[in-house]
Amino acid sequence: MAEIGDVMNVVVFDTTLRDGEQAPGFSMRLDEKLRLARQLDLLGVDVIEAGFPIASETDATAVRRIAVEVRRPIVAGLARAQRQDIECAGEALRPAARSRIHTFIATSDLHLERKLRITREACLQASIDAVTRARRYTDDVQFSAEDATRSDMDFLCRVVEAVIDAGATTVNLPDTVGYSTPDEIEAFFRHIRERVPNADRARFSTHCHDDLGLAVANSLAAIRGGAEQVECTVNGIGERAGNASLEEIVMVSKVRGDRAGFVTAIDTTAIYATSQLLVAVTGEAVQANKAIVGRNAFAHEAGIHQDGVLKDRRTYEIMRPEDVGVTRSTLVLGKHSGRHAVQQRCEELGLALSRLELDRVYRGMVRLADERKKVSDADLVDIVHRVRTAEAADADAARASRVPFVPPMPDSPTTELGYGHGV
Ligand code: KIV
Ligand code: ZN
Fold it and tell me: Are 189 and 157 in contact (CB under 8 A)?
């Protein structure tokens, strides 16, 4: 566990395409998920949770396509602690350069008794079976104890020890309903890490929801308590009030490194473009005063503030807009704009274009500008990724004729739990 004064590398596990996509109004098509996955790669996330393959054929296809095309980050697929889910995730992830099966089951008595209607012992056995089965597909297996923060501590520790013995390499302890508080979740992680005898053989992960507006604070506290992976989403999207916001966690570590005590591999200058792409794809705007990426995050209207910022911007700005990729452009893109303006704005958004890409992006911009007067940053980022997706699809089609058929893994019996698909 990290000591005070240590600076820890924290793994960023992005679940925008899974927990985020699951929220009402945020579902994405295959091509949209692919564009976002590419942008998450540019952003520098360590793990992309690409979807929940058993949930639908579209989800399975999206996970497979992302596994084929996005090669640097680990690509994860979600699976309940059930045989079919794990097989489906294992198959979807087969083409990945680095794959992770993320299997989960609830551990709180409330969920066990009222939702799953199984005993603690059945839950323990299902957890072990799920991890054992997942390890047949990949040596990178994550186990999540859903509703961990409301689970009985003795039972949770038994489950954690058992799944690590079964081969889980990451153990995620979600605050599924956003019920915890920072002091509580820090002590929770500290306690489990100290008490579980084989805790040093796995990486602990935090996954916080924002029902009380504490998801980011709780994630930071969990890291203080020993979590070395943080699960989060772009713009904080996710079930109900959302998940911990990626950009907020990352910028705390950057701006307040003196207090946070951890670093991430995120390229912060790609944050704004990523946020805007998500807006373009989902059609859901970010609230104006949202930290880091909201329209007003770097805007100053009050006279006293304007005066201060004009004299020295540090009076009212604790980070530079360009550090998160927000550039104050005076160029307005429309149908009269030239190629050069398009190229410059893309560069300001952290998107370097080849000559061919610039030609295509320019044509896309002019087409869109014919329909609406102004082309926004979100539109432009979206056009760039559309062009790149089309290029990759061409390359994919060419490759497909050369990829050999891989037969599915042989099957073997396991515990079956009769619960539905919903997470
Ligand atoms: O919130 C949660 O518990 C989840 C799990 C599936 C990890 O999203
Ligand atoms: Zn969640």
Answer: no
Q: Ligand 1, atom 2: nearest CA belongs to which residue?
A: 176
d(CA 306, CA 256): 24
Q: How many residues does the chain have?
A: 423
* Residue span of the structural domain in which 347 resides: 299-400
181-202: pLDDT as tens digits: 999 999 999 999 999 999 999 9
State how beta strands 170-175 and 141-146 pair. Answer: parallel
Instruction: Match 């295509």 to its residue by tokens.
Output: 360
Whether residue 247 sits in one domain with residue 153 = yes
Indicate whether residue 174 lines ligand 1 (CB < 6 A): yes
Same-domain pairing of 36 and 92: yes
pTM: predicted TM-score of the whole model, two decimal places: 0.88
pLDDT tens for 361-385 read 999 999 999 887 778 888 898 999 8
Check pocket membership of 18 for ligand 1, CB cut-off 6 A: no
Cβ of residue 423 lying under 6 Å from some atom of ligand 1 = yes
Question: Is 101 in contact with 128 (CB distance < 8 Å)?
Answer: no
Same domain, 43 and 186: yes
Strand partners, 175: 208
